[in-house]
Design brief:
The chain is of the alpha+beta class. The protein has 3 helices and 7 strands, in the order ααββαβββββ. The protein is 35% helix and 49% strand. Strands 1, 2, 3, 4, 5, 6 and 7 form a 7-stranded antiparallel β-sheet that branches. The chain is globular.
Length: 190
């Protein structure tokens, strides 16, 4: 009887381990699908705001798209996720993004970021090493998918072999701040 109980226990442990692994894989695939869907929706919004971006993205060696959520009151922070896409290989790398800022600012917003890489080397460095940079002040407002940019905020920035675009999806942010942004590979989704 003891051998039978050990056998049942071993079967139970194997079943739980297999079920947990399957559940983790299914959860990972679900999260990857959500990021891809969010990326496509964000790209369509960028193309609607600036139709020329479609051609730039198509010609580029790669691009990255992020959706972030943030709050600010003097000190601000935002975070989100997205992916970097290699147009030559078709490979997607799932990534995270975080931003911290300090200054005269107040607000809450959901933003989308599009980075269009000008060279394969820039894309490779972004994916392999992450990316950090600082920024300046911004005054942006948006609601219901509309975006209003004020000089110094939103729009296009040129950063080391890449073009960087931001679109405020909803919410309002006002003020001037010094910000730092970091991008890195997602350990959970790759």
């Amino acid at each position: 009887m003891t051998t039978f109980i050990r056998f049942l226990f071993a079967v139970l442990v194997c079943s739980i381990a297999t079920g947990t692994a399957f559940s983790a894989d299914a959860d990972k695939a679900k999260k990857q699908a959500e990021v891809r869907k969010s990326t496509q929706a964000a790209l369509e919004r960028f193309y609607k705001e600036n139709p020329a971006l479609r051609g730039e993205v198509k010609r580029a060696p790669g691009y990255a798209v992020f959706t972030t959520y943030g709050l600010s009151f003097i000190i601000g922070g935002s975070g989100g996720s997205g992916l970097a896409h290699n147009t030559k290989s078709g490979h997607d790398t799932y990534m995270n993004m975080a931003q911290a800022s300090v200054g005269v600012q107040i607000g809450a917003a959901q933003s989308e970021t599009l980075i269009i890489f000008k060279s394969p080397k820039a894309l490779s460095q972004f994916v392999d090493k992450g990316w950090e940079f600082g920024g300046g002040g911004a005054i942006d407002a948006g609601a219901g998918g509309k975006t209003v940019g004020v000089p110094g905020g939103g729009g296009e920035n040129v950063i080391a072999d890449a073009l960087y675009y931001t679109l405020t999806k909803n919410g309002i942010q006002a003020g001037g701040a010094v910000a730092g942004t970091k991008f890195w590979k997602s350990d959970d989704l790759n």
